[in-house]
Amino acid sequence: MLSAVNLSDCCFERFGTAILPIEDMTPHSDKDAILKFDDENLRYYIMRLRRRPAKVSSMTRHQKATQCLGSADAQPWWMVVAEPGLAGEQLSEATTLLVRVEAGEAMKLHQGTWHAGPFFLASSALFFNLELSDTNLTDHNSHPLPTPIKLRID
User: Fold this and answer.
1) Contacts of 31 (CB under 8 A, 6+ apart)
2) Which contiguous run of DSSP H or E holds residue 100?
3) Which of 18, 38, 43, 150 would staple 64 via disulfide (CB 3.0–4.6 Å)?
4) Which of 139, 153, 109 is closest to 127 using CA atoms?
């Protein structure tokens, strides 16, 4: 069973950027999320999800663009991530990380970062999502896991 680490406490740089609260008028720094989109047709929307079981049987990655996610209804959530350089066959409990994201935090995933989620405790949740307009059609690369990973979310 995979246990969570907090976004603000983990070394998230190998997966993306932890987007944490900063004061207004803070100058640009290397802690800011750098966005990359091979296509200019972006989609920013509020995604509604229904709760699913706390287990991962496959993971997905987007090679053409970064992806940004944050709670739109201020509740904690969890995401399973794995490094972009891994081949699908290398995905397992040993190569993944379960990250807890608090209300008021968000994440930007590097191009190619494997991910599953978001997971949450409520029956449904809303998420701000920035991605390519056709990500789910042309850049949705999934790989099944040989053994599902159970998640501890609480």
Assistant:
1) 17, 20, 22
2) strand 97-101
3) 38
4) 109
- Residues recorded for the chain: 154
Which residue ranges form the domains of the chain, and what is each CATH number? 2-17+37-152 (2.60.120.480)
Strand partners of residue 70: 106, 128
In whole angstroms, give the CA distance from residue 127 to residue 143.
23
63 within 8 A of 39, measured Cβ to Cβ: no
Q: What is the DSSP letter of 136?
A: H
Q: Looking up tokens 């042309």, which residue turns up? A: 138
pTM above 0.85, yes or no: yes
- Taking 3-state DSSP, the helix, strand and coil percentages for the chain, each rounded to the nearest 5, stand at 10, 50, 45
Question: Strand, helix or coil at 138?
Answer: helix
